[in-house]
Design a protein that fits this description.
By secondary structure, the protein is an alpha/beta fold. The protein folds into 2 domains: 145 residues, Aspartate Aminotransferase, domain 1 (Alpha-Beta Complex); 241 residues, Aspartate Aminotransferase, domain 2 (3-Layer(aba) Sandwich), CATH 3.40.640.10. The chain has 13 helices and 14 strands. It has an 8-stranded mixed β-sheet with strand order 2-9-8-7-6-3-4-5, sandwiched between helices. Helix 4 crosses helix 10, helix 5 packs parallel to helix 6 and helix 5 crosses helix 9. It starts with 10 loop residues before the first helix and ends with a helix. 44% of the residues are buried. Bound molecules: pyridoxal-5'-phosphate. Pyridoxal-5'-phosphate binds next to loops.
Length: 404
């Protein structure tokens, strides 16, 4: 059929392009390939037995049908209550009304775009940032204004400069999108003082902050830092998180925390998007939290991923040429690596794939297609311990050949 339907597609659809990462995930099909490319949790962490037990209880109960019926768009009330309780413990001053569940936290990006972004509206993102936020907001024709990162995540001095520059040009961005904990892709974490500063600047410039936090629980070193939302007393922060990394992504259950006026709009947009979030998944997730399984499970995941991160750092030191640099994360799933000036991770990837090792070129995470060529993102949660070491050995040998 080829391009037979191009003239039928909307202008919006004709602009959509498949994400490089999704395309790359196809490489996982090759059993010999060692992939640092995806962002997948390790299936070894999925608590299958516990889920089976909870599901049995739910489906064996007299009111089992409730978990199989449509639910309300806001989400399953006992789960929203349990999540509100967890979020309050993280310092957020919120009620159950400030929490909705969503079909994976990715849906919040789509709904925020739908509700806030008109074509060519400027929004502020870090460079690099989460690829699927870029593609998600691009659907609504957002115009990305970028702020570089350093080891402290988004550079606050440059953020301030960007705001001044936009304001001088008479532009008023509505949203700044940030991933304060173990950012995807660079693994960097925003210190508390910068979180406070961000909230102050958002107040001064009347911005909404979208705080994306899928990885906050995955800390292997250092101390937890309070969410940006916990410093917000005006309701201008929308916080989003997910069960994908602390239970299993297949449930597609996430949540958003925000001002009720904003949530009301998101819910209306969600009604026409999916009617409601997977009800059985929500009821299981709720039992998982209320039966007290979530914190022991997080501790278990931290143990496994912490070990993998250590192995990764050891392998990097052992196999990477001296001119290659990386940022050491305290948690999350990714190691951000920089090649020497002039080297291209896109060309490197082609050669690496021939040696059966894959990663994502950092270029994918920059809105400007000219940026990020010398960077790459390595995922360390999915490969087995043996594959981490062998994969880095292979990557090191490709780099040795390339850089000499
Ligand atoms: C930064 C970030 N935000 C959001 C998501 C979406 O997660 P989910 O839709 O599974 O909750 C991901 C998934 O990997 C992510 O890395």
């Amino acid at each position: 059929m080829g391009e037979a339907f191009d003239k039928h597609f909307s202008a919006r659809a004709n602009k959509l392009k498949a994400s490089d990462v999704r395309e790359l995930l196809k490489l996982l099909q090759n059993p010999d390939m060692i992939s640092f490319a995806g962002g997948l949790p390790n299936p070894q962490t999925f608590p299958t037995e516990m889920i089976r037990e909870i599901a049995n209880d739910i489906l064996g109960a007299a009111d089992a049908a409730k978990a199989l019926q449509y639910g309300i768009t806001e989400g399953y009330l006992p789960l929203r209550e349990a999540l509100a309780d967890r979020m309050r413990k993280k310092g957020m001053d919120i009620d159950t009304d400030n929490v909705i569940t969503v079909s994976g936290s990715q849906q919040v990006i789509d709904l925020m775009g739908k509700v806030f972004i008109d074509p060519n509206d400027p929004m502020i993102v870090s460079a690099p940032t989460y690829l699927t936020a870029l593609t998600g907001f691009a659907v609504y024709d957002a115009r990305f204004e970028t702020v570089p990162i350093d080891h402290d995540n988004m550079r606050m001095d440059l953020f301030e400069e960007k705001l001044a520059e936009l304001s001088k040009a008479g532009e008023h961005p509505k949203i700044v999108y940030v991933l304060p904990n173990f950012q995807n892709p660079a693994g960097v974490t925003m210190p508390e003082k910068n979180r406070r500063r961000l909230v102050d600047l958002a107040h001064e410039h009347d911005l909404i902050i979208l705080e994306d936090d899928p990885y906050g629980e995955l800390r292997y070193k250092g101390e937890d830092i309070r969410p940006i939302k916990s410093f917000d007393d005006e309701g201008r922060v929308v916080y989003m998180s997910t069960f994908s990394k602390i239970l299993a992504p297949g449930f597609r259950v996430g949540w958003a925390v925000g001002h009720t006026d904003i949530l009301r709009k998101l819910i209306i947009a969600k009604q026409s998007s999916d009617v409601c979030t997977n009800v059985l998944g929500q009821v299981i997730s709720c039992e998982y939290v209320t039966r007290g399984h979530v914190d022991p499970q997080i501790a278990e995941i931290r143990k496994i991923y912490g070990r993998k991160l250590d192995l990764m750092l050891k392998g990097m030191s052992e196999f990477m040429p001296d001119s290659v640099r990386w940022l050491t994360p305290e948690g999350g799933m990714f190691l951000w690596t920089t090649l020497p000036e002039g080297a291209s991770s896109v060309e490197l990837l082609e050669k690496a794939v021939k040696k059966k090792v894959a990663f994502v070129s950092g270029k994918a995470f920059y809105p400007n297609p000219a940026d990020g060529f010398s960077t790459l993102r390595l995922n360390f949660t999915y490969p087995s311990d043996e594959m981490i070491t062998e994969g880095l050995r292979r990557l090191g040998s490709v780099l040795d050949e390339e850089l000499t």
